[in-house]
Each structure stands twice: as structure tokens, then as C-alpha cells.
Amino acid sequence: MNADSHRPDGTEWRCLRAKPKCEHLAARQVIALAPGEIDTFCPRLRHRKKTARGPVWFTEALFPGYLFTRCDWLQWQRAILATTGIAGQVHFGITVPTVPAGVIADLRAAIPDDEPLSIQTPLLSGDEVEISDGPLQGAVGIVTRIMPARERVAVLLEFLGGTREIEVPLLSVFGLRDIRESNFG
Q1: Does the pTM exceed 0.70?
Q2: Are strands 44-51 and 117-118 parallel, antiparallel or unpaired?
Q3: For 28-49, what is each residue's pLDDT tens digit?
Q4: How many helices and strands in the chain, by DSSP H and E?
Q5: How far, in Å, CA of 12 to CA of 70, rounded?
Q6: Is CATH 2.30.30.30 the classification given to domain 128-181?
Q7: Domain residue spans in the chain?
Q8: How would CATH label the architecture of 13-118?
């Protein structure tokens, strides 16, 4: 157990429930109570989704509905729980779990707290993709080449009674493979 993870002064990391889609706003409100005395961690992800109006970037909390805070809990508990955007503290009956400081440190090292981490499904040659904008919007094809320097991708489409390879901007295609199926290791 990390010596910093359970401190007698009440400054362990705690998990708070936030109102839906308000995690980062609640974190700002909590810090504003006592800058320098209260620390929060609320990492966010930025990713593209296909919508009816085309590709749109969305920013969402890495842990939807939750944020982490560390402070003198006995001193700040009432003020924090009354803060706009905070729905309560995570607890299991009368047990209030704390989060080891090492876990938060590891997360902070991997994911910045000050701005969202942008993620994209990596495209590979042979992936099935859908073109999301332009005159061929909605067409589905197979990636044949990825040209990162030009930020373009070559896609093999069945078009006009034959098979054609076309080049489109990289941000104009969506991979149809689920990101959870990707092998990043």
C-alpha cells in the first residue's frame, strides 16, 4: 500500500458522483472553493462520431458521471457536496472507499487533466470504412493504402459497375471495425 494512499489528515483521494455531462464543470467548481487546498482529477476524451450532419468531435469524461478529489475532507465535505454539478460521494453502505494516490498518479501520467485526450480508431490496410462526407458520402469500401504524410487514405470502392481505388481525406472516413477489437500491443 502506498504511504500516500491513506493519510491520517483526511486528504485521501475520493470518488465523487457528478451530474450527467457535468464532470469537468463540477471539478472546476470544486477547485474554486479553495484553490491550492483542493485538488481534482477529471480526465476527458475527445473522439469523432458519425452523426446525421456528418462527422462531429465529441468530448466526454473518461469516467462518465465521476470525478476524483483530494482535500481535507472533514473541513471541505459539506461545501464540496453542495457544489453545483456534484451529485454525491461514492459509497457502499457506510463504507466510503478511497482511491490510492498511485492510481491517480498513474492516470495523470497517461492522460492529461487540463485538456481532452484525442483518440481515433487506427485504420489499417484491409479495414472496411464508410465515407462520411463529400459526393461519395455513405459509400463503403476497403482501405488499400494509408498516406499519413498527405493525411489521405486510398479506398477501394465498387463504383460505376467496377472496382475503383479513390483517395479521400483521412478525416472523411470512419472505420467500421470496433475500436475494442483493435490490437494496440
Answers
A1: no
A2: parallel
A3: 999 999 999 999 999 988 877 7
A4: 3, 13
A5: 6
A6: yes
A7: 13-118, 128-181
A8: 2-Layer Sandwich (3.30)
